[in-house]
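Message: I would love a firmer grasp of how sequence relates to backbone shape in proteins. Thank you; the sequence and its tokens follow:
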Amino acid sequence: MASHPPKKKPEEIDRSNEINMSPEDWEEFGHGVQLFNSGKFWNSHEAWEQVWLRHDEDERLFFQGIIQLAAAYHQLFVKKNLKGLVNNFDKAYAKLVVFQPKYLGVNVTPLVKCIEEGKKEAERLGAAGLEEFNTNLIPKLQFQKPLSPDLLVEGRFMVKSDRFLEGSKLFSQGYYWEAHEVWEDVWRDEEGDAKTLAQAFVQLAAANSFVKLSKLASAVYLFEKALEKFRQFQHLNCGVDVACLNLEIERVVDRHRKMNGEAMAIEKKLLLVATIPLQSTNGS
């Protein structure tokens, strides 16, 4: 029976070239970041695990590191288990420390520092004092997806295309489902990151359409899916102000979440999202 090569230690991994990530990988990775930063540590663990499963052994160490970091905070807040907390801190530290200062768009050095300080805090408090853990020591993942050099050109070409502009005009006039169908044609013609960007517009238009139909749960779901994608292009200067668009979607999602029961029934007419600024420009 052929033997498998021994697993490499973290310090033996070649980090000169970052691993290849598919659009699906990036979407789930970014979703995991959002979950982690909102305190949903076990959910982020599960999102990152889907990416981890699609990569070879030597490519998994970074994912394992952040998964174990999420597991540490799950042990802290849900299990209230000092041993599990410290063990996961140690496992995460051993992996993440070699990926400093930045890897896959994540600022790793602040995470390493928080693990060091968090472990000291946990050991100081002991098992009986974990309720007093200083939550200021829990990091927010600073993440910005590395953008392909070709994406700027592809993105500008896409938002200036006749079909995209047709969809934009329909959207601004409140014909959201029609805009969805036009942008879906654009999405079919794109590849890679540009395809992901196009899909975000498709989901945004569909979300607005569901709002008009008072299908608010479906609308919120699609707003959130669109937002996950748009956040990947926060700093993309392609002729659409993606950063501003993200803020508008976040505002809308927050408003929908606050609506429930009688309040939702009373304010349905106020929930139409016709004000999201979606105007392509001729920015260079």
